[in-house]
Give the backbone structure.
Amino acid sequence: MSLWGLELNWQSVLWGLAVFALSMVLSFALLAAVLIQLPANYFQGAKPPPLWGARHPLLRLLGRIAKNLLGAVLVVVGIVLSLPGVPGQGLLTILVGIVLLDLPGKRRVEQRIVRRRRIFQAMNWLRSRFGRPRMVLDDEHDAGVD
């Protein structure tokens, strides 16, 4: 059987499923690692708390470059995961990617996404599983209103 010019057999289907499962597990692990490391007050206020503020300037520059590259990859992966029929935490992955990117106006987008009840609950559930404090919003009672 052929699909888009590729021969489909049981072996290729199993390989595809294995790659899909592995990429999903790695995506969740990376997502969890970033969410767990964020300070609890990251989404409060007009600006996030400074990261790497006390580090050497060259290290800060290299860190910002790596952080932005990883953020761009996560946004693209999140968009793919948000497509119909593709399982995964698309919005959460996009959120982590946006958190990592240095973009003008991103703070409002981050805060709007985090205020979605399911996103906020999922982040706090994950953080509690690793003994981290709950995320705090400016108006926590408003979480889930959007």
Q: What stands out?
A: The two ends are 46 Å apart (CA to CA). The longest helix spans residues 10-37. The mean pLDDT is 80. The chain is about 60% helix and 5% strand.
